[in-house]
Amino acid sequence: MKFTLVSSSIALLVTALAVEAAPGGKILSVPLQTNGNYKPSIKASLAKVAAKYSKHKINPLLNVPGGLASTEGTGSVPVIDYEIDIEYYGTVSIGTPAQNFKIDFDTGSSDLWVASTLCSTCTTHTRYDSTKSSTYVADGRTWSIAYGDGSTASGILATDTVTLGGLAIKSQTIELAKKESSSFASDPIDGLLGLGFNTITTVSGIKTPVDNLISQGLITSPVFGVYLGKASKNGGGEYLFGGSDSTKYTGTLKTVPVNKSQGYWGVTVSSLKVGTTSVGTSFSGILDTGTTLLIFTETIAKKVAAAYGATDNGDGTFIISCDSSNFKPLVFTMNGSTFNVPADSIIFEQDGSTCFASFAYSSGMSLSILGDVFLKNNYVIFNQQVPSVQIAPSIDQ
Ligand SMILES: *[C@@H]1O[C@H](CO)[C@@H](O)[C@H](O)[C@H]1NC(C)=O
Ligand SMILES: *[C@@H]1O[C@H](CO)[C@@H](O)[C@H](O)[C@H]1NC(C)=O
User: What's the CA gap between 119 and 137, in Å, rounded?
Assistant: First the structure.
């Protein structure tokens, strides 16, 4: 569920907060007001190549077509952490010969789409050109997607070879964008690759890239491991398809069951605490790499805010003290194990003397989203087959 900030300089408070509501996939939209307290950060403005998700940092590995293949049966895709942990993207190659794109990997959706030469307005992006690919096959059906943050894209389907971390998926259905909403124009990404379940592809019956990695025998284990870095450390990140990278986490992996009934990586949080103070019990959440912040229900968000002395901006976001030295970690319990978001990640961004919290809410929303704020502190191995996740503290926690 791409639910991301449109560039830390503008989007945090002006974007529309919207999510697909739990049952039936209806879109709830809560327009956020522009907040007068919020001043654009110089750093963000300078680095503003884009709109929705990661951080501006040059990663030489991105020049390797399709990322790097590691050991047999796995494929590693390094990602760039755009701006200050806003979004993460890596290179995906499509076609023969390979055309390379900057793609946002999103566990909260299941479509793979890319800007194409059919889109006359997609000029800020690298566009897929079907006439230059010998493996392109037309499909003719149309597609259209609306994400939780209000962004949209639409176009036509095709199939082509898609190379992910050196693993070449044959006849992958791809969605060629003829149109994309304006927020994408300022976003560095050329498209998205959904890592959710195939029950929520916008055109039904499509196999996701992970489905095909499994069915074409390109990965030996039906998993992918996700490491999202922190800008405050070294940034970057890595998606490892077919395996997990033990150099990216510490401690013991804990298994948490996944409820895929809504097509997302759904988990049950049995308790949420700020230090030892309870702020929530037994609620449903999703693990979503495509969402920047932690999104809670309004009730829970307000309890979390009270525990940190944060003040409600009235638009779903909170202003918080810039001194995190007395902050306690935010502790999630899932299947009897605890997982932390430490004090340094409770502040999402400092802008002059104003700090914005890394948690927010969207009125009327019943599902919580454990976005990048959770995932940059916790390494997660997603297992589509069981389904389940295994989680351990990230090396950046
Ligand atoms: C829950 O945790 C227990 C003990 O840590 C583990 O053995 C079990 O497999 C987990 N349950 C599921 C459904 O993943
Ligand atoms: C999974 O989620 C659905 C919808 O939210 C719910 O109805 C169902 O009871 C859940 N299943 C389990 C095993 O928790």
Answer: 18
Among 4, 92, 93, 16, which Cα is nearest to 54's? 4
Residue count (the chain): 397
Condensed to tens digits (0 to 9), the pLDDT of residues 23-47 reads 333 232 333 323 333 323 322 322 2
Domains and CATH numbers, the chain: 32-57+73-241 (2.40.70.10), 247-393 (2.40.70.10)
Find the residues whose C-beta lies inside 6 A of ligand 1.
Answer: 254-255, 257, 335-336, 388
Residue 306 CA to residue 30 CA, distance in Å, equals 22
Cα–Cα distances in angstroms (integers) from residue 187 to residues 69, 146, 151, 253, 346, in the given order:
27, 16, 11, 34, 25
| Atom 10 of ligand 1, residue of closest alpha carbon | 255
The whole-model pTM stands at 0.86
Q: How many CB atoms lie within 10 A of CB 68?
A: 15
- What is the CA(256)–ligand 1 centre distance, in A? 6
Please give the structure tokens belonging to residue 45. 């403005």
Q: How far apart are CA 130 and CA 315, in angstroms?
A: 43
